[in-house]
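Issue: copy button drops trailing tokens. Both records pasted manually instead:
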Amino acid sequence: MTHLFDTDAIDNMPQRFRANFINSLSGYKSANLIGTCDANRHTNLAIVSSVFHVGANPPLMGMLMRPHSVTRDTLSNIKEQGVYTINAVPVSMFEKAHQTSARYTPQQSEFDHCGFTPCWHGDFTAPFVAESPMRVALRVEDIQRLDANNTELVIGRIEQVWVDNNAVEDDGTVDISQLSLTCVSGLDTYNKVIPIAKMAYAKPDKMPTPIKLFNSDQ
């Protein structure tokens, strides 16, 4: 039976229950490891599921960060250095990726403690995750504090993308199903994604038309 959770019910939920409940409502989200470093090139790695598309021209991606009420090395490094990387999490490494959410000290690199390998491309000064099948380098374009809950919106301009050519389709779409990536639901539930279909551009005088149907058994 469908149940109504109204404002009073949500406000009276226990803290952790409400956090899990509200976080689950937005559905599946990409699992990403954010690579940063400080001025001394001390590396940091943090799992974030709040990454989203902002625009293609210019190429921008957004990311919501928790309030800076306690030390947050990732956000501090981004503000200090102005660059960071977004690295997709392969299914085979979701446990190690989850471990990066533990509260390591600023002197402890999650790369070392969680089993990831930092790599550097050219003169870009933030570390990538060598094990990631899709790696994106970004430079800060804008950072805004949201008055609604004091979270910080980080918008970055894409400078580099590292991905297997075979996963890039003729129309430019990255077929992420080929990359075996993890996604997140709620705060801590990791999932595999099975694609259903790729659809043609929708028009009011045309029936929905699949361009490509995927094997539902994969």
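Record 2 (pasted manually too):
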Amino acid sequence: MMESNRLGKKVSDFLFEYKTPRMIALRDKRIGLIFRLIQLVVLVYVVGWVFIYEKGYQCTDSTTSSVSVKVKGFGFTNLSTVGPKVLDMVDYTFPSQGSDSFVIMTNYIITPKQSMKFCTQHHTSGECDSDSDCPTGKFSRYGQGIMNGKCLNNSEGVKTCEVFGWCPAENDHHLPNPPLLMAAENFTIFIKNSVTFTAFGVSRRNLVESITKAYLQNCTYHKVHQPLCPVFRLGYIAEEIKANFSALAYKGAMIGIVINWECDLDRPVTQCTPTYSFHQLYRSLTKDQVSVGFNFRYAKYYVENGTEVRDLYKVFGIRFDVMVHGKAGKFNIIPTMTTVGSGIGVFGVATIVCDFVLLRLIPKRNFYKQKKFKNVEASLSAGSGN
């Protein structure tokens, strides 16, 4: 019965009770100090972080971007299989020009004068013991052609399957060291980037107002001395990512060039300029890690004595990915009012903390509870106002 009465009272209190705040002026140095300190922290947060640092009074827009790239520099190689050779940007850049993702060749292995015929595979493609290990018409995952059912000694005296394919078979396990194109350390990359902040109708290029034709012909990017120059030396990029260029050039690498646009459009638009940073995208963490660096193959085809012939290149190089990030902000009344409202709401934290201390932690908490809460039975019947 008593439980039923308690439940009924709780339901009645929930349905018919109204609570209104009661203001009490409390003179207590400790509580007052806590209250003002919390208000000060909130004020610093709202003004310093939200308004000044995060620019909470602005609406923002992300960037739409385009990138084009040109590489400059010359390299020289003198291999016994092909003789002396000067390489320019068409020879060592893939694709040749223009893309925001490109490779600069720094080392390579060449297998010259391949043609379609029968030959034995290199032993790294798999060894065999008998003809039954070389089923006719099949190929292995790491094979170098279609097997014809014969197991023979190759030029190194190792028994491998004879195949029909591009012969002689490639031997890609003698990578030149030092790298053939160490000259690439002084190659330069010229990056053109344009961005548009559609919401504000603002377009910018990384060739900003201070960059003239004469300046562009002689400048090279340096993060302190020439931070706006869009011409980057490969050796300097290696220094920025704290890597040895010779190690990068030997087996290749992947590097990200990040162009960042952070623009405050409440200021003159000429102050909207990019910043550049560099990151190695795939770094070998252990000496035994497999498939390190970056490489691919391509071939140059020609006809010799009526037969189609090719020179096969296994290219090791540095792959560059140009990535553009950006955000622009400009004053707008809606985010301003939203930020102000949020800031005022956060000030309520001071009251919540101080009430918790008063009513839960200090010795005189029961006294303060009596002063803060008062139960009143309201009479709303007609004539009660007499």
